[in-house]
Amino acid sequence: MTTIRTRRTQSRQAPKPVRVEVATLAKLIEQEISKKLLELLERKHLYQTVAIDLTAVNNLIHTATESDIKIPPPAAGLLMHLTSRVALQKALREYVEDLLDRDWQFESTGAEPHRAHIKKQGNFPVTLPTLKIHCNKCDSILPPHNPGYPGQSEPISIVLEEWKQSVQLVLLPYHCQSCKLEPLVFVVKRTGLKLQLVGRSQFESFDVPKFIPKEEREHYSDAMIAFQAGRVLAGLFFLRTMIEQYMRRVLNAKGRMTGDELGDAYAKLLDDEFPKRFISLKGIYSQVSEKLHAADADVNQFTASREDIVRHFELLKTLPLKSIVAENQSPVALSPLLSQSASQIQDVSTPDTSSKRL
Ligand SMILES: [Zn+2]
Hints:
Elements: H1 2-13, E1 19-20, H2 22-43, E2 49-51, H3 55-63, E3 66-67, H4 84-101, E4 104-107, E5 124-127, E6 131-132, E7 144-147, E8 157-160, E9 167-176, E10 184-191, E11 194-200, H5 217-228, H6 232-251, H7 259-267, H8 281-293, H9 299-318, H10 342-346
Parallel strand pairs: 1-3, 4-5
Antiparallel strand pairs: 2-11, 6-7, 7-9, 8-9, 9-10, 10-11
Helix pairs in contact: 5-6, 6-7, 6-8, 6-9, 7-8, 8-9
């Protein structure tokens, strides 16, 4: 017992000095900016933002008892006193504030390695991350995109300084390493510690699942585009349009029909084995309609309904509709097409106007 007590006493009496170099702090901030930029460009959509988190930097400063930073007078004279630690940490905080207050100089190391050595005085250099994103120019799956491109001239950064808080706009070209065709250029707006994606030279692309019927792919695509641009209500509207148009097409529906009527008639076309535990298209239609009537731009609803729709069509691949209403067919005389594959069902053309309505 005595031994343990002695060890504890010794540990309290001689705390281990923590030396925090300014270069370490700068590196930590740069890594955080680079990490948040990667999140913004890989996973966020137009007009969304990310914020730089300084928790790790502040925690490190809080532990500092030694540093290579020059403490300005008069605190410098108190270096050997009890206040020295406070003065040291204050100086480190001021250093970080000054660093963040400068223009951030985003540097490409991929295409033009020499650019990493160009450091404008007073700027805070940040090395750009490599991204894994869709490419509009080729079919590769999430090919790596390097910052910059061969022959790139000076990086373009515009600083608007007339306002309360300085705003920096940066053009960031990224080059697909799979096809090496025209680079994709992002426009990022920096306001203090916030980074916002405000532009891109090529449309944001995404995968439309291959089992979505070709006739309704455009509505699905429009829903995704609207959603990714932050127009959630428009996204919900396109999802509902997609369900409605799909049901009308396979039912050969004419004239006015409510979502419930369409949903009930459509349910009769489903294979008997089609799992009942999943929400029906009628159910999805009803949930989305409710949000539209209330003008509720519910992000969770969009995400859930989109997933439900995708799951429905994925199941149709293995359990195709048992019958469809073809041209000139009355809904009461549905001919069973048990052997029909999902792809055949998806190829049903728009019927003529002579067909009876449901
Ligand atoms: Zn490509």
